[in-house]
């Protein structure tokens, strides 16, 4: 697993379910939303690992509504979970 702290600033790392392209233009993501959290530099590694493990292990409530996750390596890293339907308040 790539740790965000080991990646160059400006790197985006995606982990999405099969047949979902990590673009908002993908039909599965087109009406979706996201949850995002920001982290001080070097503090996102554990959250990224747990996010991936929860997705792969199907530990999220309403996991069928999740498209994937992305980490944006910046001055402050950001981890986002993309969902299929922003209007589904229960899943959001």
Automatic annotation (TrEMBL):
Keyword vocabulary terms for this entry: Initiation factor, Nucleus, Protein biosynthesis, RNA-binding, Translation regulation
Domain of life from the UniProt record: Eukaryota
Membrane-crossing segments per the record: none
Extent of the signal sequence: none
Subcellular location: Nucleus
Main location: nucleus
Any one cellular-component term (Gene Ontology): nucleus
Entry-linked InterPro entries: TIF_eIF4e-like, TIF_eIF_4E
A GO MF label: RNA 7-methylguanosine cap binding
Pfam (any one): IF4E
GO biological process, one term: regulation of translation
Family assignment from sequence similarity: Belongs to the eukaryotic initiation factor 4E family.
Quaternary structure annotation from Swiss-Prot or TrEMBL: EIF4F is a multi-subunit complex, the composition of which varies with external and internal environmental conditions. It is composed of at least EIF4A, EIF4E and EIF4G. EIF4E is also known to interact with other partners. In higher plants two isoforms of EIF4F have been identified, named isoform EIF4F and isoform EIF(iso)4F. Isoform EIF4F has subunits p220 and p26, whereas isoform EIF(iso)4F has subunits p82 and p28.
Protein name as annotated: eIF-4F 25 kDa subunit
Origin species: Actinidia chinensis var. chinensis (Chinese soft-hair kiwi)
């Amino acid at each position: 697993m790539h740790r965000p702290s080991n990646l160059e600033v400006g790197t985006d790392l995606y982990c999405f379910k099969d047949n979902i392209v990590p673009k908002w233009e993908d039909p599965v993501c087109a009406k979706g939303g996201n949850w995002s959290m920001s982290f001080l530099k070097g503090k996102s590694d554990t959250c990224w690992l747990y996010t991936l493990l929860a997705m792969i292990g199907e530990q999220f409530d309403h996991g069928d509504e999740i498209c994937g996750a992305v980490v944006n390596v910046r001055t402050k890293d950001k981890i986002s979970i993309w969902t299929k339907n922003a209007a589904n308040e229960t899943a959001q």
